[in-house]
Amino acid sequence: MGRYFAIRIGRAALTIVLVVTFAFIVLRLSGDPALMILGPEAPPEVLAAFRKAWGLDDPIWAQYFDYFGAIAKGELGRSMRDGRPAIELVLERIPATLALTLPAFAFKVALGIPAGIYAALHRGSAIDRAVMMTAVAGFTVPSFVLALLLVLVFAVQLGWLPSGGQDSWRHAILPIATLSLGGAAVLARFTRSAMLEVLGQPYIRTASAKGVPWRKVVTSHALPNAAIPTVTILGFMVGTLIAGAVVVESVFAWPGVGRLLVVAVANRDLAVVQCILLLVAMTMVTSNLIVDFLYGFLDPRLRAKGAHA
Amino acid sequence: MVPLVSIAGLSVAFSGVPVLRGVDLALQKGEALGLVGESGSGKSVTWLAALGLLPRHAQVSGSVRLEGREILGAPATALDRVRGGRIAMIFQDPASALNPVLTIRKQLCEALALHRDLQGNAVKAEARRLLDLVGIPDAARRLEAYPHEFSGGQVQRIMIAMALAGNPDLLIADEPTTALDATIQAQILELLSTVRRELGMAMVLISHDLGVVAENCERVAVMYAGRIVEQAPSNQLFADPVHPYAQGLIGALPPLDGPRRRLTAIPGTVPDPAHMPSGCAFAPRCTLAAEPCGLAAPSLAPIADDRSVACIRAEASRRALLGIAAE
Amino acid sequence: MSPPLVEVSAISRSYAMRSGMFGRSAAVHAVDGVSLAIAKGETLGLVGESGSGKSTTGRIVLGLESPDRGEVRFQGKPMAAAETAAWRAQRARMQMIFQDPLGALDRRLPVATQIREPLDIHGLGTSAEREERVRELLRAVELTPAHGGRYPGALSGGQRQRIVLARALATEPDFLVCDEPVSALDVSIQAQVVNLLADLQARLSLTLLFISHDLRVVRQISNVVAVMYLGRIVEIGSADDLFARPAHPYTQALVSASPASGRRSAGRIVLSGDPPNPAARPNGCAFHPRCPRAIARCASEVPTLAAVGGNRQVACHLVTGAATRDAA
Question: What is the Cα–Cα distance from C203 to C201, expressed in whole angstroms?
Fold first, then answer.
């Protein structure tokens, strides 16, 4: 078991290193930050001074090692735009993002999982078809379209809710709704197919043949098995808590991490972009670790593999 | 004497396609009945339908009586008492027949809690006794193990223990050894016949393997395309099959001793349930088929004590067989 | 006596297998020192339970896998190295059919196209000749040209296995490895395919290696039968004689476990213990933990395959020439 997790954690660390490296290379290759921030009209000596100040004239591998050395010391760089520590900029945006993504996550789970289970248990019924149609719509309609649609109906036509900004809790309703609907649809579909798969397994028939009442067959035989694949998608959703709202924050002018990322990328504000990517990679990797741990908890077959190791 | 189970006119259709077309079958207390037939003949569906284990979209009609009481279409609570309590069932695929995330103890004790009036430690003690009974060594420790920690043969033993948990009067064994190796198959069949003898339990052994059925059952029913075509005591069926399909099945089985002969293969294939031929379903593959065979499906009629056959050419078929023997 | 068409000398093959996801890897001896010879036009039956190494043996004989030790000779010549021109030419002379015909066929192509494929690959004949050959092959397996236009999904299991057989015969092979070819088929269909295989063998003087767990089917089609247990041959002899008078305790148990219709066998030998695990092969005779007759020597010393009279060879400390007669 210990070794199972040591290997998982080693892999997680490697993933983070790769993500950061990738981001570093892509951003360095995609344009000169000095030009982006100071503009093409800036005098060459100013540009040179800017590059020197930020270490941009060093060879790229030297920049890379400096960057990693800094991260190892907990130093995540400063924004090239206003000189504040990048981590500070990012951290002050996190509560705003979580104010959207956490309630949205709760709604996704509360709506999606019961809907999926119900649809699977009443396969082919009117409710199943309705759930599936909604799910397909939620699956295929991009979130910015859904966001605009909600704005059009509830803000523009009905005038019930504001269309953007962060002044009151009423401003959060539409962004949260946008995030929840799409996610709940994905979760419902996933839960339904996981449930159907499990309900078709011979051990379900064995339980019925033993005389276990159907309600108990579902709760004590089907659900624990269907939970295994569902945990995967839940883990993925936890991983998107920090930066899963890029589009929605942009549409609703919500000052969260997502919007910060968009602005920072447009400006080639390397330290900020890298700081966000590092954070995203870390939440993703952490949620994956939690999923792996839950697998071990839910599925004795995996536990055994760990134990033999 | 009221039979333990009597099935009459049992029919099953899936979205309008008939897969079981009127099965009549009676089973006495303590009797071992073999049900043979090829895939799609309806041998498993008969018992899944009788126990209400088919998916909801299956259309089931007819009658299934347990000691005279109708159980087909009975309310769920009544059926749950029959299933596992009066009639237990074990299945073919040991790898997936047990719930992979629950310990053996949980799955065994669940059956005990449902059908036996046992409390606390007595439940676990009984679970241990059942594992001992089916030959799982070190039962106390093995109770805490999960299904994947057992071999296929051991899982089938555990399935048998679970089936015995409710002290059933009848065990339906649906191809219990098909997925197992020959030497393990012999172990499981031996175990089944031992527990049956000791507990005085009736058994229905569903198998595609004539040899398995012949060795383990007193009486055999042969199914073809959703109907029973011949019923007879095992030894008589193998020595003197009457229905041309039963003859074909026995002729198709290569002998393990004696001279080698060319196998008498039955030509053609099993009819598609959606396009059943009119009249006798076997007629298109039957060497003895005559014109009347295509008109009406023959019903199962007695030809001797304890023997019945559904064939209007039964006499001709019997003569043909005797002719072959005389040669 | 003419030299055998296929000659397998002391082949061994082991795999590294890990227990669990991160367990230590252990060598699993799938096949361990197997020697066989198959005369032209004859059938060698290979029986055994899962894990006995019979399928691996078949794959090595066909050159789909190479042995760690030992060699396979075809018509007196060693198998050419894989993927060379000589290997391809040799491979056209030997074909394989498997248990699952649906898995062996491409569901998206009409079956005639698939029968034709080996002709295209090996560049045999003109386009018109290939078409004619496909029709001829369909007739050979007792199907009609109309079947050729269908897709695998529209055929029954027995028909699919005939298509696989037709495709295997397209290049006019001398040698066919059949791995459980009828195990997935119903009894009545099984008999059709077994009869067809026997007819084709006689007509085309095919040499067969017939791998199956079904003793009856093996006896029906084989001249010689070899019984495998945990990677080794434990007994080999002529088919009728072997099943009538099995000498090795394992063969005796197998024969006894094969139910005979119409008779109840008194004194059936039921082996105790689980099926053998190739990853944990017992010392000495691999069968000794389950053997009802094992003696102390069996646990320490590996018995070798030795002639015990007639053309029978047995690997058992308890079976000598005299003992065979006792067992009979």
Answer: 6
